[in-house]
What does this fold into?
Amino acid sequence: MQFVIKRVLAAIPVVFLTSVIIFSLMRLLPGDPITVMAGQSQSDASPELLQQLRHQYGFDRPVYVQYGLWVQRALSGDLGYSVYNRLPVWDVLRPRILPTAQIGLTAWILAILVSLPLGAYTAVRMNSWVDWLGTALALIGAAMPYFLTGGLFIYFVAMRGGMLPASGFVSPFVDFWQSVRTTILPALTLTFALIAVLTRQARSSFAETMQLAYIRTARAKGLGEGAVVFRHAAQNAILPVVTILGLQLGSLFSGAVVTETVFAVPGVGRLLVDAILSRDYAVVQAVVLFITLSVVLANLLVDIAYGLLDPRIKQS
Amino acid sequence: MTLAPESLGRSSRPSRRQRLFRSMLDALRNPLLAVGGFLVLIQLVAVLFVGHILPFGPNTMDYNALLGAPGASHLLGTDELGRDILSRLVDGARLSLSVGLGSVAMAALIGVPLGLVAGYLGGAFDAIFMRLIDSIIALPPLVLALTIAAVLGTGLVNTTIAIAIVAIPAFTRLVRGQVLSLKTNDYVLAAESLGAPTWLILFRHILPNAINPVIVQASLAIGFAIITESSLSFIGLGAQPPQSTWGSMVQVGFQYLELQPFYALAPATMIFLAVLGFNMLGEGLRQQFDPASRGIK
Amino acid sequence: MAEASPTTLPENVAPVIAVEGLRTELALRDRVLPAVIDVSFALKRGQTLGVVGESGCGKSMTALSIARLLPPIARIAAGRLLFDGRDLVGLPEPDMRRVRGRDISMIFQEPMTSLNPVKTIGYQIAEVLMLHVGLTRRQAWDAAIEKLRLVKIPEPARRAGEYPHQLSGGMRQRVMIAIALACNPKLLLADEPTTALDVTIQAQIMELMAELQESLGTAIMLITHDLGLVAENADRVIVMYAGRKVEEAEVNELFAAPCHPYTLGLLGSIPELGASLTRTGRGRLSEIKGSVPSLTQLPPGCAFAPRCGFASEQCHRAVPPLEEKRPGHIAACWHADRVLESLS
It folds into this structure.
C-alpha cells in the first residue's frame, strides 16, 4: 500500500498548480472579485457593505494570503454564492453531478466493453481489411463533433424514429426506466469518440503483445489460442489501454459540456456553460475546481488500478 | 535487407507484423495524404472562389422561402430568415478556417520558442515551466478553453486567443522533447564550441531539425482548433451575430432540427470533414516524415 | 515425396524423434522461400544432438517445425516428423497441443522476455501441470515448488510467489527449464538456451540440463552457434548451412575430422580448439569471410561455394549430395577429401 500513498502524494502538486491556475484565472475575470465571492451584483450592494465584505474575505490582503483563504474556504465547502439564484454554490452544483456521472460512466463502461474485445479480435485476426476499417473508424471518431453525432441521433432516432426522448434527464431514483431512456442517446454520443480512440489503442497493444516471447512460451506449453489470448496476452495488453482510459476521463468532461447542451441535460457541463453565459463566476470557479479534482482523482484511481494489474509497478 | 530464416524463426512475429503493417500502410499512406489534402484543398477553394459564383449572398434574405426545403434554387434549403444555407456554409468556412489557422499560428509562434528555450536551457526554469504546462494539460481542453473564453469575453478574436492558449502546451512539449534529443548532436556541440550565440544555435541548428514534427502537430492542432471553435460557438461563447461560423450555424440550426435538418447537420458535417481533412493530413505527413512510425499509432 | 537423405542412426534403437526429409517454406507476398531443405536426423532417448550454424541457417526453423510453432507465414511443405510412432506433420492442432509442453518442450534464447511479466513464476509452472497432468490448482502449486527445487532455485516456496522481474536472467532460465521439464518430456528443444547469459551462469545452466537429462532420460536438441557448448554437451552434431544439413557426425569425430569446409571454417573460428573443449569457450562464427546467402538468392550449386576456399566449377553448378565420407560421418561436399587432407 506504500505505492498507493506514493501515488496520492504525486497528485498533490498537480492539484496545487491547477488550483493556482483557476485562482489566477478568476482574478483575471472582469469585475470586482468581491462581487463574485459575495454573489451580489454591484448595483444592490452599498459601498460600505462591499468594503466590509472585502475585509472579511481578505481581499485587502496580499495575493498569496487571498489564495490561502480561498483554499481554506473551498475545503470547508464554502464556495460562495451563485449570483443567478442566490443559493450557495454547492447547492447549485450538487444536483448536477448525478446526470453527468450517470451519462459519463455509462459512456465510459460502454467504450470499455466494446473496445477491448474489438481491439483484441482485430489484433488476433490481423488482416489488412480489418486494419483499414479500424484506421477509418479511429479517424472518423476523432473528427466527429459531439453535436453532429448527437444531432444525427436526435434527428433519426428521437424525431424520425420516435424511439427515445430527444432531451432532458430523469433521475433513476424517480423513474428508473425513464432514466435509462434519457441516458442512452447522450451516452452513445459520448462513447462513440471514446470507442474510436480505445479500440485503436487496444488493437495496437494486443497486436504488440501477441508478438512477445512469452506468448510463444505459452503456446509451447500447449495452451489453446483462447487461453493464450485471455490468460497471457490480455492482462499485459490492457495496461496501455488503462492509461488512455484515465486520460480520456478529462475528455469526457469536454464532451459533457457539448453533449449536455445538445440533449438539454441538467448536468455539470451545462451548468458551466450557463454560469459563464450569465457571468456567475462563483459557480464557474466551483465547477472548474470540481472537474479538475474529478480528473485528478480518476487518474489516481487509474494509476492504482494499473499498479494492481502490473506487479512491476507495485513493487518498484 | 536479406531475409534470414534464423531471424524469422527466433523473432518471427515482429517480422510478420512489420510485413503486415508495411503492406497495410503502403496501401494507406497515399490515401491518408491524398484524402486529407483533398479535403483541405476543397475548403480553401470554397473559401477563395466558390462564394463568388453562388447565386445568393450569405446574408441575402428570401422571405418567400423561410426554412425552405432543399430544392433546385436552394440546394440545401434556407434558414429561418430565408438565407441560402449553402451560401452561408461557404461563408462560414472563411471564419471557421481563419480561427483554426489563426489560433494555431499563434500557438506555434508562442509554444515553439518556449519549447526551444525550456529544452535548451534545462535546469530549474525547465522543471518549473514544464510542471506548469503539465497542470494546464490536466484540465480538459474544452473546459479550459471555455474558462479562458469566459475571462476574455466572447467574439472571434477572443475565441482565437483562448484556443491558442489551450493549444500552446502541445507545441512546447513537442519542441522541448526534440531539443533534448538534438542538443547533444555533434553539429550542435560543434557550433557551441565555435562560440555561436544561443539564439543562433536554436534557430539555425536545432529548429530546422525539429520542424517536421511541428508541421505534423500544426496540422492536427488545426483540426482541434476548428472543433473547439465550433463547440464554443455552438455553446454561444464564440462567434456572435452578425458573424457566423459553422458552429454558430449549428447552434441556431438545432432549434429547427425537425423542420430543416440540413440547417444544423450540414455545417456540422462540414466541421467533421474539415477536422477529418486536417487530421488525415497530419497523420499522413507524420508517416511521410517518419517512416518508422508507420502503423504504430 | 522426395527420397529422404541418409542418416546415420543405428538400426536397432527406436529414436524419440525421426525427422525425415523436412522442408519448411516461408510464404512471402509474391514468392515462396525454402527455410529448411530436406533435413533428416534422428534422436534417441537420453541423447543430445547439437545443431550448429550461423544465424539464418535454419536451425530455429527446424526446431519450430518439430514443435509446430512456426510463425503464420511459414509452413511444413514436405517430410515427416515421426515422434513416438506418430507423424506430427498433419496431426490435428488439438492433438498437437497435447504433445506440446508435455512430450515436446521448448526453451528459448530470451530468458528476460520468455516469461509472462504479470504472472507469478509459480503459476507459470503450475499452469503446465494443470493442463497436462490434470492436477488441481493447489496440487499444481505444490508441484511447481518442487520443480523450482529441482532446478535449484533457493527458497522455492517463497520464489514461487514472485514475478519474473524479481529474478535474475539465470534464475529465469532455470524457471524456463522447470516449465519445460515439468511434465518429463521425451524431447526438449533448447534454442540457444544460454546465449543471453554470461559465461559462469551459462555453465551452471548447462550442468543443470545435463543432470536433469540424466535423471529423466530426455532427448535434447541443443541449438546453438557456440561450438564450445556443443563440444562439451552434445553426443552428435549436425551442421546446417542455408537451410540444409551439410554435415553430421559424433561430436568427437566431427571435431577431429571435419569433412565440410564450412565446418572447418567454424572450427577455425575457435582459437585453440583443444583448450576450448575443456572450458566454455565462446566460439563466435565470424572468421568465415562473407555471410550466409540471402534465401532470395540461393546459388544453383552448393550454397557455401561463394565463401569456400575449396570451391571448384562443379561446386557452383551442382548441389553436393550427403554421403558417408568416413564411418558414421556424413557430409555434403564435392571436395571432402581435400578438406580432410588440409587438416594433416
The interface with chain A takes residues 67, 69, 94, 97-102, 105-106, 108, 110, 113-119, 127-128, 131-132, 163, 165-166, 176, 179 of chain C (CB under 8 Å). Residues 1-6, 271-286 of chain C have pLDDT under 50 and may be disordered. The first strand of chain C starts at residue 17 and ends at 27. The first helix of chain C runs from residue 59 to 67.
